[in-house]
Amino acid sequence: MRQYKRNSKKQSHLNFDTGDMNALFLYARFQAGLGQDLMLKNYGEAMCSNRGGKQIGINGWYANGQAYVYLQGELGIRIKLWFVNKRLPIVKAGTAALLQAKGPNPYWARGYLSGNYNLLGGMVKGNFRFKLEFGEECKMEKESVFGGMKLITDLSPKKDENNVDIFAIPQATFAFKVDEPIVIPEDDGEHTYKIVIDKMVVLDEKGNEIKGKIEFAKAKDVANFVSTDILPPNQKMKFLVQVSFMEKKGGVFQVVTVDGKKAFEKEERYFTTGTAPTTIPLSNIQYAYPVVSQENYYTGETNKGTIQLKRGQDYLFDDPLWKTSIQFVGEENTLESAFVYNEGTNQITFTTPELSTEKQYTFSIVAKNSNSSATTDLTKQTKETVGGQNESEINVTTQTKNAQSVSKDADFERLSYTFRTSKYNTLEAKLSSINFNTLWGKINSDVIMLQNNMNADEAFDTAELVGTQYTDNKPLIEMTALMDDAFADKFEKLFYNSYPLDGMTLSRSAQAGEENYVGIPPTKALPIYSSYLQYLENEKYNPFLKRIFPYKYDLFHYYHADWYELISKAANRYVDAPQSARTAQVNNLLQSTFGVVPKGKYNVKAVYMIPGGDSGTEKQFSYTLK
What we know:
Largest sheet: 7 strands, antiparallel
Helix content: under 10%
Distance between the termini: 60 Å
Shape: flat
């Protein structure tokens, strides 16, 4: 169990006899079995007022969720008329119900069993909603909207933690997803709530708010405060989080109040930061160009260099005692370049000097201490004549050099990494040099996939194909199928140009925004060989990397899958409808066939993308089916 991040799920089973239960004119007795699917959460110091003020659960850990009960027995209605006075069973068999459950210490479950009855030939009929309740419910002291549960389950850094990394990201975890509906069953029906963050701030020791933004994890039960710059070093900081509650009434969420006041929960932590680093960690780079460890830097794509920091380190660049420059250290020479650091965007920009092709360089940001220069004329000369008058004379000059006070930090690297230039000046030049020879593979009787042999003299690298953490995880090459052939035109006219067709959508549209989404129409259906990436990682000199073009042409697979899905949906929707009830577009689709993939050229375009959004050279080429 990781208390600081996640809550734990608990599943168990319980069997018991309910005994006689009565509610108004209903009666019941069941042999019951109870299973549960609960989420274990930390309620802190919450106590049960009806149990002598004992702490809830086990050291504050208490489960809340749903239970599924199976009942074997009898549920009935007590009838007392002038001619009959007896119990008439409504259910005399096995049944099941879903309950709200909490536990352990104490264990409690509640739910409702609903149904209709028709007895004595219709003389007695109606419907029922029978409340089932087992165990003892904990009545929380100072009970909140959510029954005393801590909604802010944890904060980090921890309370009074020292020497916290100034790159740390304060984090809050919550019992529920933030700003998402939460349905709570209660005696009068289901109530819908949500929690919202009122405040999530970090304050320095003077009470000033640190600039930053809130970022949520995908599940929205974890929120991070990402400061614009690194946290101030060697300071006592305060991390404050406050959430409030809203309830849906009349279709609109309204603020929940308790005793006339806004209901909220607040947590805070104090912590002390450590010292600031004198370098730029690679982990603080969002993207860089040239890219860290890049294998194919094309010298002719752009001379604009960029280092985008995730969080600002202004203090490295605003000290007048240090003169900072960019250096490109090659095998034969060192080239320097001036730079500009933008404190607002946390970006370093510079002009990349003219670099040689097929060479390795070390990129460095070097700081020189302006106090490191020595004082002038530190050499003392002493002239002495040896020998006296009437004797031979020797003139001796002695030089005495005083030690200079030179800082050991006269040259200091703030950032350093290597990269290698390509044989080619641009991506366009590299692709133009390749003689493609198309191969094809059969997927099924209707669909094939095209691939290209290239027999090139230089492979592609990871940064180009899929990106790295230093390209903001975006590839430097953007591939797009042009779909300017007759086969593509057929499916564009059938459904892509008018998608969604008659309100019918493709199931894969739910993947929009995900990493491997190919689009509708599927212009990005140009997957990369997984083996190519594996060789780049483990055997970067393997001849396969220069023989096979890494991208495959897989549009035909998506044409077939999309066509089959939409024609099936249209057939099911209009199974009994006359042709006149269908649109012309739907009729055309229902009368179509997939056909045979024709021989010919299938064109694509590759565009070189500079990290940060600028585009470089581009090249169109094709896959040919012969």
